[in-house]
Amino acid sequence: MARRWLVTGCSTGLGRALVERLAERGERVLATARRPGTLDDLAARFPDNLAVHPLDVRDPDSCAAAVAAAADRYGGIDVLVNNAGYGQFGAVEEVSDAELAAQFATNVYGPWRLTRLVLPLWRAQGGGHAVFVSSVAGMVPFPGLAAYTASKFALEGLAESLAQEAAHLGVRVTIVQPGGFTTRYGVSAELPRSRVDAYDPVSGPMLAGMRAMHDNPALNPPELFAEAVHRVAGLAEPPLRLPVGEDAGQFLSMALTARTKEFEDVTAARLHV
Question: What is the pTM of this model?
Answer without folding.
Answer: 0.94
